[in-house]
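Would you kindly consider the sequence and fold I have copied below?
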Amino acid sequence: MIHFRAGFLPFAGRKPDEIIPETKLNIGKKSSDNKGAAEAKSSVKPVSSSDFRDHLATADREGRRQWIYPRKVQGKFFRWRTWFSWLLIFIMFAGPFITIGGNPLLLLNIVERKFVVLGQIFWPQDMIIFAVAVLLFAVSILIFTTAFGRLWCGWACPQTVMMEMVFRKIEYLIEGDAHQQRALNRAAWNVQKIAKKFSKHSIFFALSFLVGNVLLSYIIGWRQLYQIITDPPAQHVTGLAFMIAFALLFYGIFARFREQACTFVCPYGRLQSLLLDHYCPVKVLLTAILFR
């Protein structure tokens, strides 16, 4: 069984044995001399599961990436999670066009130092209100996580929602399930492999460009974004540069970085070891259900 650190669980809802690394882990048994020699020659050194708290499950002892291939998930809770994810995706794409009292639903215009939340405009002189709101939000996260676990990571995190419910499904559609993806990556390059990889990454980049532009509209507003798209490129060099940068950023996250964002970038994921313990209500409940 693969053990994960408390601060790393990118595939909420999956059992540990449903997340398969490309390299088999060393379970701590003594190997033969031939096997030891083969492992010594390999560029990837396996990590023992006995010291999982000192190592990442997606990296070997040298820090090299170990690619994981999650299997397809089915079940009642996954269906609920899928429907909820589609609702969140709809809200994300519709958000820039929703107005309340003539103001956007959400606008974080850092350049003009203008922030709109639920139609209410906030300026830099209103930072005290923002500070209080951030403190309340942080305390709410602490209490919520302690009581219910990582529901945010598995059900509502934008990175998880887009990765698991959009990009992952496209990858399954083109390359197949976990064992088929593993076989494809290990196979020699041929026409079929090139076609699948080109199709997948082309769709990934197109979706990343779309997602990047939608999130950019939360910063500059959809009207300004539309003007950048329709006007001659020479008039909006900076805006076009940001559009391309956002597209490349999200393409890198969804095509390559993936669950590493939860481990190295997300502060919420790094705080999990402080927020959860064996006496957390959600862990007690799950233990009672799984081991009754």
In short: Residues 161 and 180 are 23 Å apart (CA to CA). The two ends are 20 Å apart (CA to CA). The chain is about 55% helix and 5% strand.
